[in-house]
Design brief:
The chain has 172 residues and is mainly alpha-helical. The protein contains six helices and no strands.
């Protein structure tokens, strides 16, 4: 099932390509990300069928490229940051993610990823709040609060899961 479910990446890439072909043909950055999604699906399929160490690179490399490529796109396009600022933030994110992968225990790393994802969504609701208030009196600020509470819970959960285990110290 793990190998077969990789068809979902190819379907997502096809759907995105079809949309790009109809509405975004002048956007090579999106096309590059679509190609990377195809590579994610094929690489993950290779890893789940071959189960070799070398095939793991075919799995994780495109995922990393997509994460870093999409972050760069988001920094430039959504936040309208300059190239130098975007590249500096991307470099910082790469260094931080590599450091976390190397030094942070698995449970803490997972908790931080969940917290980061929740915070990203909460930030969207915070940014959209002023515009949302014009269309809907409740706005979205309350979602900012709810999701940030979930962020705080996620980081606390990670800390609880790894309590009494300083970095570099193995569990006994």
């Amino acid at each position: 099932m793990n190998a077969l479910s990789n068809l979902a990446f190819l379907i997502a890439a096809y759907a995105a390509f079809d949309l790009w072909r109809r509405e975004g043909r002048d956007d090579p950055a999106i096309l590059a990300l679509i190609v990377i999604v195809v590579a994610v699906g094929l690489g993950s399929f290779a890893f789940h069928t071959l189960a070799r160490r070398g095939a793991m690179l075919l799995d994780v490399t495109p995922i990393g490229l997509f994460i870093y490529g999409y972050l760069l796109l988001a920094l430039r396009r959504f936040l309208l940051l300059s190239w130098p600022a975007s590249l500096a933030l991307l470099a910082g994110f790469i260094v931080l993610s590599l450091a976390l992968a190397s030094y942070v225990p698995r449970a803490v790393g997972q908790a931080m990823l969940v917290a980061a994802a929740l915070f990203g969504v909460s930030l969207i609701f915070r940014i959209a709040d002023l515009d949302a208030c014009a269309a809907w009196p409740l706005g979205t600020h309350f979602l900012w609060h709810v999701l940030n509470a979930a962020v705080l819970y996620a980081v606390l959960r990670g800390a609880i899961a790894e309590r009494q285990h300083p970095l570099g110290q193995e569990r006994k």
